[in-house]
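Technical note accompanying the year-one report. For the benefit of new consortium partners, we illustrate the data format agreed upon in the data management plan: each record pairs a sequence with a structure-token string. No post-processing was applied to the example shown here.
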Amino acid sequence: MQTFTARPKRSGRQRFLLVLHKYLAVLRVSAANNLAYLSEVFFRAMFLLVFIFVFLQLWTVTYAAKGVHELGGYSINNIIWYVAVTEIIALSLPPLSRQIDQEVRSGQIAYLLGRPCNYVLYRFAQYLGERLVRLAINIPAAAILAWLFVGPPPISLFSVLAWLPALFLALIIDYLIYVAIGLLAFWTEDTTPFFFVVNRLALILGGVLAPLAVLPQPIRGIAEILPFSAVFYDPASTLIHFNVSAFGWALLQQALTLAAAGALLFVFYTFATRRVSINGG
């Protein structure tokens, strides 16, 4: 008589490593796919030259017109490096909401939800792989251009070490916001208007075009409490204008924004998956 031996039960650590390995494999595939189209990524990086040059001219005229060497604690060198950092983040964003929009409208999301993995985490692994490739090109490109235009950056080892976790949190917040926008396709015909509004608000009030420290009140106060500042202003100011207490507040704001964006996405995702089960995709 054939006997069967019970499969040994995996420990929690083993199960976690298996899940981690699965999503890391998705990340590697996503990064490899984007490396196959480096010409497109390099073309996007060329926009950095245009943006940094334009902002250099704009801020040079602004400083000269006001007859000052600093605005909000930022010199011309500081502000150009600041703009370079924010543009690195802004130009590395993949078309995430559009991709999810298309998956929802085509019904492909029903197939993706049936996979043995969490859709949000699967999408995050894909997103992170694509974004890391873009960052790997944008960072040295922006650094070279800013150095040529205004000289070496006003950074230290401490500011770089503080910038890394701030940047990672910013990427997660950005992901949560745009996935939530993409999931709106379950209720709307097209999510492009939502993306357009949020993206433009992020550029204006997130600190992409100028540090929030140079904005007048009450615009500055409003911008500082919006989630966009946690994506752009907090990481850039941490690297270029590092201050221990300001860094602590920035991490707190990012943590609160992350919790709020995560809760919002959870609500959207819960109702969206119910619609999939009702409509069959």
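Partners are asked to follow this layout when depositing records. Residues 13-279 form one domain.
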